[in-house]
Q: What sequence folds into this?
């Protein structure tokens, strides 16, 4: 039986020795802990919040690792993906780090899936976001975690970060893209009806018998699989635990002070400390210093990545990269106050912006961007607008909102009254009236919608070229033509939701070598200190070439860090053993 993670430090003796200590329990941190444990190391995984999973548990869990065993023979090549990343990233991040990722990625995924409960499948159709670049692919690089039944985790399941409520149905049932398709077609297809009945009955049974849903999907499933594996491998886990001191002991060994509640203990780490705390996105001082001017305070990410551990390793000489295109990854988000007064920050990834019958405009009522760009590029356009599109608005009509939803308004016929009543959804019976409610010139909004309506008829957006790449068209309505992303906005009443640029994870992070070991400004390695996930400077340089480019590299550099740290711990053990024998 695993020790109580909420009281783990209380029962720990001072100067307990570990081979590897991992700070942060998102996908990168948990992967590092698993790889180290698989290599026979004694591992402690420390998480400062009450829950494991970080933002990874709230995400779709898509994992971008090219050339894995899931890719079909001849579907891709090292040369092809390397050249694609060169074009996408350029000089915004060191090429050597991208090469290390590509070389180690297939092995990292093979080891993880062969020896733990972690399991993926290839996304059958998930194009790279920069689909217009030579070397982009339609599928094969993006992996998605398989759903996972979590009943066997018992009380340990309470360590999992709960899903975002707005991403569930029926009061807590997690669903993925496949589920959504069947739910929407439940009255149109016998296969989908049967699928839906089984899904709902299984959920109802689990709630009745076990008191909680037992089926986990997407990022939540990835973390649940990692937790299940960590428990089997004997990884020590401590939550609500903060790293407060790091003291070098020489030769890459470190003494760490850990605090859980009022209790503090010191541990000795012989092989390596892996930072995977999620970046600095919740640090208000660093947000002000490193994010673009006018950045709103909203973020759909999990709490916990305050940068506290960053400040400790900065005293050891660690430093951030400074060549990135963007310091963080962006997404347009809308906000709504929940009944419990907490704030829902909803990311508008793909489900509405690329659907026919929508348009996005700035505060003057003018289009400012191709609505079907990736969420990162869309957010970047908002921030580069000089404030004109910060905030912006997404606009639709009665027909489109009924079919596709809009933001927190669920697709398939959600009731609109509650959203209108609390101001999340703005409604008007004419375009002019909507413009007036939004405080913009009616003629500007009329012109924007007139252009969209004409483009919907011709299939060509001469202004911003919406729906011209395979990625953009993939997020539209496959049954709509001639352009699956363009449809008329003509059926009253009309609706709008306010959009803000929000960060979904930092790209700026610590510079390191190809083993994810941190370095100083003169290139000297900081022995025994590693980083993975958003703590490591993004190998994508603040660009967003494809789906899952945070989780994929997070797992792979967690592997590289763990492998190197465990090897260091063994060298020290061998040396101390020989010294004792002498």
A:
């Amino acid at each position: 039986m695993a020790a109580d993670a909420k009281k783990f430090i209380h029962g720990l003796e001072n100067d307990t020795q570990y081979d590897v200590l991992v700070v942060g329990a998102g996908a990168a941190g948990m992967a590092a802990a698993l790889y180290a444990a698989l290599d026979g190391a004694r591992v402690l995984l420390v998480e400062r919040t009450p829950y494991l999973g970080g933002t990874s548990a709230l995400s779709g869990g898509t994992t971008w690792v090219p050339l894995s065993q899931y890719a079909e023979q001849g579907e891709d090549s090292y040369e092809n993906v390397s050249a694609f990343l060169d074009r996408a990233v350029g000089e915004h991040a060191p090429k050597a780090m991208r090469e290390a990722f590509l070389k180690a990625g297939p092995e990292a995924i093979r080891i993880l899936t062969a020896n733990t409960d972690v399991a993926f499948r290839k996304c059958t159709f998930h194009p790279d976001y920069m689909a217009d670049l030579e070397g982009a692919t339609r599928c094969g690089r993006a992996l998605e975690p398989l759903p996972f039944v979590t009943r066997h985790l018992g009380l340990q399941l309470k360590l999992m970060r709960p899903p975002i409520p707005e991403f569930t149905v029926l009061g807590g049932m997690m669903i993925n893209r496949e589920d959504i398709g069947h739910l929407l077609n439940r009255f149109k297809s016998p296969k989908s009806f049967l699928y839906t009945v089984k899904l709902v009955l299984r959920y109802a049974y689990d709630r009745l018998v076990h008191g909680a849903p037992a089926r986990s999907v997407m990022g939540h499933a990835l973390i649940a699989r990692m937790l299940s594996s960590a428990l089997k491998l004997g990884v020590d886990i401590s939550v609500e635990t903060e790293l407060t001191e790091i003291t070098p002991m020489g030769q890459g060994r470190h003494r760490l002070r850990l605090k859980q509640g009022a209790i503090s203990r010191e541990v000795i780490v012989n092989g390596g400390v892996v930072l995977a705390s999620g970046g600095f996105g919740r640090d208000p001082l660093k947000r002000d210093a490193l994010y673009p001017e006018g950045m709103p305070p909203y973020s759909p990410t999990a709490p916990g990545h305050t940068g506290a551990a960053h400040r400790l390793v900065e005293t050891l000489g660690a430093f951030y990269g400074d060549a990135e295109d963007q310091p963080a990854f962006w997404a347009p988000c809308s906000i709504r106050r929940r009944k419990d007064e907490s704030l829902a920050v909803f990311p508008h990834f793909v489900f509405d912006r690329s659907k026919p019958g929508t348009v996005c405009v700035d505060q003057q009522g003018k289009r400012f961007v191709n609505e079907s760009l990736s969420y990162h590029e869309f957010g970047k356009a908002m921030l580069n607008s000089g404030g004109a599109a910060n905030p912006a608005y997404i606009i639709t009509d009665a027909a489109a909102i009924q079919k596709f939803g809009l933001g927190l308004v669920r697709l398939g016929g959600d009731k609109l009254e509650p959203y209108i009543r609390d101001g999340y959804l703005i409604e008007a019976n004419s375009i002019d009236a909507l413009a007036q409610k939004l405080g913009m010139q009616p003629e500007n909004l009329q012109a924007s919608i007139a252009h969209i309506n004409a483009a919907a008829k011709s299939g060509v957006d001469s202004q911003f070229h919406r729906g011209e790449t395979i990625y953009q068209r993939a997020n539209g309505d496959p049954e709509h033509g001639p352009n699956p992303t363009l449809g008329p906005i003509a059926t009253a009443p009309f609706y709008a939701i306010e959009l803000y640029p929000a960060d979904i994870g930092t790209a700026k992070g610590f510079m390191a070598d190809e083993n994810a070991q941190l370095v100083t400004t003169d290139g000297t390695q900081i022995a025994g200190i590693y980083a993975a996930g958003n703590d490591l400077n993004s190998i994508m340089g603040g660009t967003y070439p494809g789906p899952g480019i945070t989780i994929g590299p997070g797992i792979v550099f967690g592997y590289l860090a763990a492998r190197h740290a465990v090897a260091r711990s063994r060298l020290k053990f061998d040396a101390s053993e020989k010294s004792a024998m002498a």
Notes: The radius of gyration is 24 Å. The chain has three domains: 1-61+153-160+218-327+507-582, 173-212, 328-503. The CA atoms of residues 227 and 491 lie 49 Å apart. Residues 577-582 have pLDDT under 50 and may be disordered.
